Amino acid sequence: MSACTSRSEATLSALDLELIRVTQQGLPLTEQPFAEAARTLGISEDEVCARLARMQDAGVVRRIALVPNHYKLGYTANGMSVWDVEDAALPALAARIAALPGVSHCYRRPRHLPDWPYNLFAMLHGRTREEVLEQKKEIELLLGDACRQSDILFSTRILKKTGFRLAAKGGAKCSD
Question: Ranges for the Siroheme decarboxylase AsnC-like ligand binding domain (predicted)?
């Protein structure tokens, strides 16, 4: 194993690596999105799903999820709400916040005191800032006394959202 090859990659079969390459740019919007990958690889759709499930169970693939373009859907007022929540109450409250309709991401992050006291983040999406601020008020009510302070950071531009990508087949895995 070279210094540029990860341990996880070294334990994957060539077919697993090719499956990652075939699917990492996204799946087609069809009724059977894994069927195209199966055809490309010359294996069954069931095999594609089984391999992805094994890689997910092993932690090689973190998740398989839909990533909507909120702006194209009309949700242009997006804000990261940040909360200073009692640590003991955080897991139960975060689960309730994550279930709210305007929340796409909700997760715990470490505080960086004294400048950044927030340990709970929730991404809120709305068509207007007022809509997002109403969602924030709903979360404030839900958190109650467990929340010491909060803020919201509105998006000012769209960032390219991609996860980790493998190098093209035959390409270099890293550079000096």
Answer: 72-160
How far CA 110 is from CA of 97, 139, 154, in Å, comes to: 18, 20, 21
User: pLDDT at residue 53 above 70?
Assistant: yes
Instruction: Give me 131's structure tokens.
Output: 């809509």
User: 103 has which bridge partners?
Assistant: 124
Q: Are 38 and 50 in contact (CB under 8 A)?
A: no
Q: Which of 60, 78, 71 is nearest to 6 (CA)?
A: 60
| N-to-C CA span, the chain | 17
pTM tops 0.70? no
For the chain, how are helix, strand and coil distributed in percent, rounded to 5?
Answer: 35, 20, 45
Longest dimension (CA), the chain: 57
